[in-house]
Design goal:
This protein is 45% helix and 12% strand. It is built from 17 helices and 11 strands. The chain is globular and about 65 Å long.
Length: 478
Amino acid sequence: MLFSEFFKIKTNEKDDWFDLVLNWDTSLFIDPMLVFQNEIPDFKESKKKICDFFQEAFEKVALAKGKLGKPRDIALNMLRFKEPTETGLGYTNYGFQGRGMGPAFSREIFDAITDFLDWGLEEFGPYLSTFQMFVEGVGPDRVSDMITNIIKEDLLDYTIKVCKEKGIPSKRVLIENLGFKDGMWFRKKVDLPVHPYTGKPIILVPRDFLTARSNIELEDFESYISHIENEELRSQATHLFTSEIDRKKLIDAVRRDPETVKVVLRGYIRLREKEKLLGYDFLNDPNLLYLFKERLGKILSLLPKIKIEEQSKDSLNDFVEKVISQFKKCVENKEGYSLLFNDDDTPRGEKAAQAFFWGIADTLCKENNIDVSPESKTGRGPVDFKFSKGYTNKIIVEIKLAKSSQIYHGLEKQLLTYISSENVDLGFYVVIKQLGGDNVRVIRLEERYKKMKKEHQDKISIRIIDAYFETKTSASRV
């Protein structure tokens, strides 16, 4: 359910706020470059707040380098961000689990700033996405969380303004990390709408701030290097970085030649600043993160009911088999494959397939009082869905695209590791074909599966789903 639907709000073209999905967190993120380029009057001071914050953070870390005691405690405290669950954004597509931002993350950012200072790269700190390039474990979700903490007061004022304009009921709630002053984050009580499912406050975010991927990242940086106009600089950078830049290669390069890295990185960021960057395409929703629910709803309305009568291992197995069968029918026979392709007939990514399966599984599980938990984090890699009935009966389902480079690893390593470590009864490996060349990869997968079955015949099962639309009607014409 959308925020606007629950609060019975009529939206129009002037509404520039993200109409968050209340049922689950949406895998979109606030991007610093989009905040910097924004022309929304309510956020005209946001860029300055971010720049000022990191200027102060770099100063505090510089004072605390190599020391213990109060200076270090203050610097670490300044970098102790709270996870902003109020925005409904993040990597947990299908729930409100969140990823956490504890003291360990604070220390990681402290160490990263220390490195930036040592390398003379402090000018790039306020862009935040540069941390993604240098720091392991920092992605667009972490960057988004940091930005949200820093400009939270602007977001609160924006939310309160929208609520007054739309007549949305609010409650007095306590908001933390509402600005850093005198060595500590302060908090205060404000009037905000409250989430109907979690009871937590809701903070609205402008759509123009949101993206599914960062506007500053290593892959894009590598592309920039090969197109540097200055021939001498391009030659230096190409020799310094070589090809297929990763985090380790970037750090090695900055240690060997920080001045060249600084010049190249500065040129890259300036180029990105000059471009008119775009946020997430909500109209087409390429990752099936948001607006697919209406199209999916029409498909789900065609599904027959499934009932599970008894609580037993066999009945749960039978139920999950039927859920996968319904998914297969939707894709192959009920035009559901159109949800797995963009309007230009290019295949969507794995997240789209997972969102599609989740829509079917969640609907059928609710009717049978069966728990389905998406994206369980185990430390050994994500498992897409876990079904359970009672405490002991557990079945997992992993969704993979046949084109994935992890198609064999997912079956032979990831799935088996999770099954053995989490006391799972059965694991289904659902593979979706989207391209003509996928047949060869699926044949190889089935050959590997036959060898595995001899040892794990009661623990794993694979299912192949054909979404290759050239054997059907073109997805763009559905």
